[in-house]
Design a protein that fits this description.
heterodimer; A: two-stranded antiparallel sheet; about 70% helix; B: about 475 residues; mainly alpha; two-stranded antiparallel sheet
Chain lengths: ~700, ~475
């Protein structure tokens, strides 16, 4: 009942708001959807406590969905810790975004539609994460895609919003084809689409080979790769990332909910959910690591020079998703989920803060026209500082104190280091360095955003500045709650997601071994620690090494000090650089410099996002259009229409005209035709008989 | 007394009609202004006639030395003909009144026509067959020219008469040949001779002539030429009557002639039926494409639909006859409903009958628009309306008999035919025109409404559709 309520409350809200009568006014749909979401969110925390701490996972089968030959799929709710974590993330952020939208969408004309879409999205996302089979997951996967499309194009009168919506939809289709093929391959190999059945059979099938596009490929690798294609589309990884920045055309609460906290993390969730497959697919895992690391780096570089406040955060999201993927790629699934969890809080916070700024400045999004508004929006400023501290990973490694992002990001970088140091994967080494560099960039662009927006002198229209005001309470409360999460979520949950309690917490929903950090400690380091421990003469009764090394090991998780401090160090460097450039030298100087010189090659390369969109436009879009043109004008209009419907219609008309001519109205014509007819019929019958 | 009853019972329905029609004729001469009374009596009489066979008939009996036969087939046919004619009388009233044509002869002529049809469907010899047809036709010729002040109506009546005479000539010629080569007029004897093998070509030639003469009555191509002109020229209720009861009677007669006397030469008549069927379907659908007059369109539509019914008959099986009966009944319901709708197309200056006149009907008269739409969709064969199932039951027997290609032709024809029905629907719903039709007579609204309801709902009422299906099955079986 608990889980049913969690999942179906948003659906009820969607149906109510979707069917709401205009005469009812805006308030009832808003109250109902928001109320139901808060109910759902509260219950989700209950569920997390029950499943994560009380170890009571459950499987609820609701209905048989399809039963066609071997394809059997249920509507089911599979609640384990992984799902429970997602439930908490989705419903908490969604509830807060619902509330926030009361203020942000205040002047909108069709609020029930907006709230209906939000609730629909939430429901689809819940279907995705609670599924116990690939088919229901695909349903949710497509459902969130649809809701995302609807919400990006929410301002459907804006051509750019429509274009962005279509772009998101089409790009996601590419990924979805991969996912669909993956699910089909799974069915081909395992004869089932149920998670439990498939995962149990992975090991037995690891040597199977399938023919794919004429190549002989290991089945498990192929499945892992195809599923990852789907994840790349949904989670905006490099190559398929182009839609995410454009998706910022949607209302800001949507960006916070869908394009930061929840939907874009579906790919990470998918990889974590399918970890039994990925553990058996080292090549693909390496690919994921490299892809994730490169995306983290690539998106961060682009984020450095963007001027639109939402685009900076969008690229930041893209980059952080890269972190999650390379964590999953190196096998640290719990680190990936941990970052997903904390990221949801601080990234939603950043977006909602940005929304608050935009709201205050009458929908101004260009940071070049902002500046010095911290006095006008003190609360937003404070919350955004907290969010930035969280995303830049500020914290003190040895004391175990810091903001949310500190714990999760460091865990990822350390995991990459550990796997890389063990010599298992060169991709992990690459990921480690990319992670460090991306952390530097992250820090720079995040602080640049703060300085350009809140510090210095105001550079926009004075009138707007005078009327700038702090947002209403219903927008500030979500900021407060998320700030709390951004500050404490890491510290509090570290020991459950990563630390001592991880084994019990995940309870087999992720591969966490029953030792402290064993999964991120390379064997050679572990062996060294053991040696040190035995040399010291202490034969510990548990696995934890002791002695001096043991102390360091326990304190520093067994990593060299420089690894532990590197992220913090680069983060500080980024802060200092940003401070020098935008506070000491002033934002005006840099803006003017760019205006004068045009910015130089490197600047433009980054500003234009490495020209990825242009390359796509020149190759795929134009190519597809040219091909479509040929199919349309020659294939469809000339051949199919010309010989098919149009040709047939023209012929029918011709025949019809001839019949009309026969119908002359003259009696003797009629009689003549009758007699001719009988003569022909007689001839026909007798020719048949005689023949 | 019992003897008298036993003597009368086999031809009681015909007797009823003949007696009361004559009485009404006399009554009309005396009381010229009581046309309403005459009409209502005639309607009541037709209903009684329709039900008489079903309730008091004794299947298997014959009358007049085997000239007329009573079986389930004739009862069902009479019931349908009687009800269709009653409906035609019902929807004629408002038109005749507004066109100042309201004379008692109309009702009497309809009664005589129905008497002819009644003899047709239960005829068991070539002579009664011919008498029935002529009786029916003579009444219909007059009805076609009933508006004798109208040039078009007179022309229609004359054309119908002349060509009808020609077709009667063909029919009579065929009958004489069959008689000459078999030596008998009764179907049973002819059937026995034909089935004995070694059939002379004379019988086959006679059969072809007879079928061509009968084909004229159902306006099968190439004997259809009169149809568009007569449909357009005749007063609309007469056209509506033409499209229903006489078509059914002639089709039933063809079924009986094929299945009873000529069953032994199925190979030969199958060719004729297929030729007529294909020609009718092609002429019907292609001829209709360019029409702008809705009555002319209905003429071509009926030609095509007769083609579909012949598809069912061409199978030459019980299922085929059954399919023909079901298809024709549904067609009758639809066409009565449609003509009731067409008769509602009246503006203040009089009747209109162009397709463009229904433009914008959806806004000015949504109810009429809806009925039109349902009826046309059904005629098109759109599920889940009854018309779809009519076509299914007409085409399936042909497939079972191995005539798949014929069914393919029929389906293509249906697709092409859908065009002109859809064009009317499009005109109704998507074109704009501010034309107010005057308020229709209650009888018309009721009739069109009832037939629409039948088409939509009967399928979902098994307690109605199941017994009707059983009755049709029995009727078809009784021919064999």
């Amino acid at each position: 009942m608990l889980y049913l309520l969690i999942v179906f409350a948003p659906l009820a809200g969607f149906i109510f708001a979707g069917l709401a009568n205009k005469r009812m006014g805006d308030t009832p749909p808003m109250v109902v959807t928001t109320g139901l979401l808060f109910l759902s969110a509260t219950l989700s925390w209950v569920a997390l406590i029950k499943v994560g701490f009380g170890h009571e996972p459950s499987d609820l089968t609701l209905l048989r969905w399809m039963d066609v030959g071997g394809v059997q799929a249920n509507w089911a709710l599979k609640i384990d810790t992984l799902t429970a974590v997602m439930l908490v993330v989705i419903n908490t952020v969604s509830a807060l975004v619902h509330l926030y939208s009361w203020g942000y969408m205040d002047e909108d004309k069709s609020k029930p539609r907006f709230f209906a879409y939000l609730s629909l999205f939430t429901f689809a996302m819940l279907m995705l994460v609670t599924s116990d089979n690939f088919v229901q997951m695909f349903f949710g996967w497509e459902g969130v895609g649809l809701a995302s499309y609807l919400l990006i194009g929410y301002y459907f009168k804006k051509p750019s919003a429509n274009a962005a919506a279509i772009k998101a939809f089409v790009t996601n289709r590419v990924g979805d084809v991969g996912l669909a093929l993956g699910v089909m391959t799974i069915f081909l190999i395992f004869g089932s689409v149920e998670f439990d059945t498939v995962f149990a059979a992975v090991e037995a099938n690891q040597d199977k080979v399938v023919n794919f596009l004429g190549m002989q490929i290991g089945a498990i690798e192929l499945i892992a790769f195809l599923l990852f294609i789907g994840a790349m589309g949904k989670s905006a990884q490099f190559v398929l990332h182009v839609w995410l920045p454009d998706a910022m055309e949607g209302p800001t609460p949507v960006s916070a909910l869908i394009h930061a906290a929840t939907m874009v993390t579906a790919g990470v969730f998918l990889v974590c959910r399918c970890y039994p497959i990925y553990e058996m697919a080292p090549v693909t895992s390496g690919f994921i690591t490299a892809m994730g690391a490169f995306t983290a780096f690539f998106a961060a570089t682009v984020g450095l020079v963007q001027n639109d406040i939402k685009r900076v955060i969008a690229y930041s999201t893209c980059s952080q998703l890269g972190y999650m993927f390379f964590a999953a790629g190196v096998g640290a699934y719990n680190a990936a989920m941990f970052h997903l969890f904390t990221h949801a809080f601080f990234k939603a916070l950043l977006f909602l803060c940005a929304g608050s700024v935009i709201h205050a400045l009458h929908h101004e999004q260009d940071m070049r026209k902002m500046g010095g508004i911290r006095k006008k929006v003190p609360f937003t400023y404070g919350a955004m500082i907290l969010g930035t501290l969280a995303i830049t990973g500020v914290g003190i490694p040895i004391l175990g104190f810091g903001f949310a992002g500190f714990f999760s990001k460091d865990a990822i970088i350390e995991a990459a280091y550990a796997v890389g140091a063990a010599g298992d994967s060169s991709a992990a080494v690459f990921a480690f360095w990319m992670g460090i560099i991306a952390a530097l960039f992250t820090s720079f662009y995040s602080w640049r955003l703060i300085f350009m927006t809140f510090h210095g002198n105001y550079r926009g229209d004075q009138h707007t500045f005078d009327h700038a005001h702090e947002s209403p309470k219903n927008m500030l409360v979500p900021l407060g709650v998320l700030s709390f999460g951004a500050v404490f979520a890491g510290a509090f949950f570290y020991k459950h997601f990563m630390g001592d309690n991880a084994y019990g917490f995940w309870n087999y929903s992720l591969p966490v071994e029953d030792t402290h950090h064993a999964q991120v400690i390379p064997d050679n380091l572990y062996a060294a620690a053991e040696t040190v421990a035995s040399d010291a003469g202490h034969h510990g009764d548990d696995h934890a090494p002791s002695g001096l090394f043991g102390f360091l090991f326990a304190k520093f998780h067994g990593y060299p000090v420089w690894v532990l401090f590197a992220p913090l160090l680069v983060s500080a460097m980024g802060f200092v650089t940003a401070w020098v450039m935008y506070i000491r030298q002033g934002a005006e100087k840099h803006i003017a410099a760019v205006d004068e010189s045009g910015g130089g090659v490197m600047y433009n390369f980054l500003l234009n996002k490495w020209y990825v969109d242009e390359i796509y436009d020149a190759t795929i879009v134009r190519g597809a259009r040219a091909l479509g043109d040929v199919f349309w004008k020659v294939g469809d209009q000339k051949i199919i229409d010309g010989l098919g419907p149009n040709g047939f219609a023209a012929m029918a008309m011709g025949v019809s005209k001839r019949f009309s001519k026969l119908q002359s109205g003259k009696l003797f014509h009629y009689a003549f035709i009758m007699l001719t007819g009988i003569a022909l019929i007689l001839g026909f019958v007798f020719s048949k008989l005689g023949g | 007394m019992a003897n008298v009853i036993n003597f009368i019972l086999p031809f009681l329905p015909e007797l009823l009609l003949a007696f009361f029609a004559s009485q009404l004729l006399v009554f009309g001469v005396v009381k010229k202004e009581r046309t309403d009374l005459v009409r209502w009596i005639a309607i009541g009489l037709l209903v009684v006639f329709a039900l008489a066979g079903l309730f008091v008939g004794v299947p298997g009996t014959t009358a007049f030395n085997g000239a007329l036969i009573n079986d389930d087939f004739s009862y069902i046919a009479k019931a349908i003909i009687g009800l269709a004619a009653a409906a035609a009388l019902l929807f004629s009233e408002s038109y005749l009144k507004s066109e100042r044509l309201d004379q008692y002869e109309f009702s009497v002529l309809v009664l005589y026509a129905v008497l002819g049809m009644s003899i047709m469907v239960s005829s068991n010899s070539l002579l009664s067959l011919y008498i029935g047809i002529e009786m029916q036709s003579l009444a219909l010729y007059v009805l076609a020219a009933f508006n004798r002040d109208s040039l078009r109506a007179s022309e229609a009546g004359l054309k119908y008469f002349v060509l009808g005479a020609l077709s009667s000539g063909l029919l009579l010629y065929g009958i004489s040949m069959v008689y000459g080569f078999t030596g008998s007029l009764t179907f049973d004897t002819i059937g026995a001779v034909v089935s004995s093998g070694d059939v002379s070509p004379g019988v086959i030639a006679g059969m072809v002539f007879m079928l061509c003469g009968l084909g004229f009555k159902i306006s099968a191509a190439p004997f259809h030429m009169w149809t568009p002109d007569v449909y357009e020229g005749s007063p609309t209720p007469v056209t509506g009557f033409f499209a229903s009861a006489p078509k059914f009677a002639a089709m039933a007669l063809i079924a009986r002639v094929l299945m009873d006397p000529f069953m032994g030469i199925q190979d030969s008549w199958q060719q004729v039926i297929i030729v007529l069927s294909v020609a009718s379907m092609i002429v019907g659908v292609f001829g209709a494409l360019m029409q702008t007059n809705i009555k002319r369109l209905m003429a071509y539509s009926s030609i095509a639909n007769m083609g579909y019914a012949l598809v069912a008959l061409s199978a030459g099986t019980v299922a085929g006859v059954n399919g023909m009966l079901i298809f024709m009944s549904i067609y009758l319901i639809t066409s009565i409903g449609l003509f009731a709708c067409i008769l509602q197309m009246r503006i203040r200056d009089g009747m209109v009958e162009q397709i463009s006149d229904v433009a914008g009907l959806s806004t000015t008269q949504p109810r009429l628009a809806l009925m039109f739409t349902v009826l046309l969709f059904s005629l098109m064969g759109m599920p889940p309306l009854l018309g779809f199932f009519g076509k299914i039951s007409a085409f399936y027997p042909a497939i079972d008999a191995g005539l798949t290609w014929l069914v393919v032709v029929a389906l293509i024809a249906s697709v092409v035919g859908a065009f002109y029905y859809l064009r009317i629907i499009k005109t109704i719903w998507f074109e704009e025109q501010d034309r107010q039709f005057v308020k229709p007579a209650t009888a018309l609204s009721v009739l069109s409404g009832v037939s629409t309801l039948i088409l939509v709902a009967v399928l979902f009422l098994p307690f109605i559709s199941a017994p009707v299906k059983t009755a049709f099955g029995a009727a078809a079986a009784s021919l064999f």
